[in-house]
Every structure is written in structure tokens, then in C-alpha cells.
Amino acid sequence: MNEDMYRELPQRTAGYEKKAANGLAVASLVMGILAIVTSFFMIGIIFAGTGITLALLSRGDSSMHGVAIGGLVCSVVAVFISVVSLVILIIFYAAVGMNMSGGLM
Fold first, then answer.
1. Which of 11, 26, 74, 92 is the most buried (most CB within 10 A)?
2. Higher per-residue confidence, 67 vs 104
3. 9 in a domain, yes or no?
4. How many folded domains does the chain comprise?
């Protein structure tokens, strides 16, 4: 038999290196998900701030990778939900307080 048939084929990965997920990026994603889950209880702001910080720290000198971007997006969405929830809560308490004290109605 021909021995050339059994030789190894050259690897075609020149210029492409798969990098492992950065630990800070994964932590950012976890914090972002926790922030979304707890954003209605106003504690989500703490998780979101931590998630944003970890996402920005994970990039180092290069651009952000997918996991870090996911953590950043989840954290920003959680901040938005927390702020909207806080505004609705303030409006609700202001309306209830006015009704109880004889205002407007």
C-alpha cells in the first residue's frame, strides 16, 4: 500500500486561535443575569454595577468578547428596569399618599 495515504493532513488553523472564556467575563454575565432577576427589588442595581465593572475589566487591552458583551447588556438592561421600577414606585406612593391625606380626591 501507499504510505502517503496514511500521513497526517496539515492543520488549517493558521491565523485562528480559539481563546478560552475570560473568568471576569463569565462573572460579568452571571452578575448581569442576577441583576435582571433581582432588578424589581432594587438590589439589582448592586449586581448590575458589579456586572458592568467586571465586563469592562475583562476586556483588558483588547476588544470585548461575546460573554463580556452579554454581561454588559444584561447589566445595562437591569439598571434600566430598576430605574423604571423605582419611578413607578415613587409615583404610586405619591398617589396613595395624596389620596390618604385628602389631596386631589
1. 74
2. 67
3. no
4. 1
Residue type, 6: Y
Q: DSSP for 19-76? A: PPPPHHHHHHHHHHHHHHHHGGGTTHHHHHHHHHHHHHHHTTTSPPPHHHHHHHHHHH
Share of the chain above pLDDT 70, in %: 72
Among the listed residues 92, 28, 35, the one whose alpha carbon sits nearest the alpha carbon of residue 60 = 28
Distance CA 13, CA 25 (A): 25
Start-to-end CA distance of the chain, whole Å, equals 98
For residues 74 and 98, what is the distance between their CA atoms, to the nearest angstrom?
36
Q: In 3D, which of 18, 19, 31, 11 has the Cα closest to residue 71?
A: 31
Domain span at residue 43?
22-100
User: Comparing 15-29, 30-44, 60-74, which segment has the lowest mean pLDDT?
Assistant: 15-29
pLDDT, tens digit, 9 for 90 and up, residues 64-97:
788 999 999 999 999 999 999 999 999 998 888 7
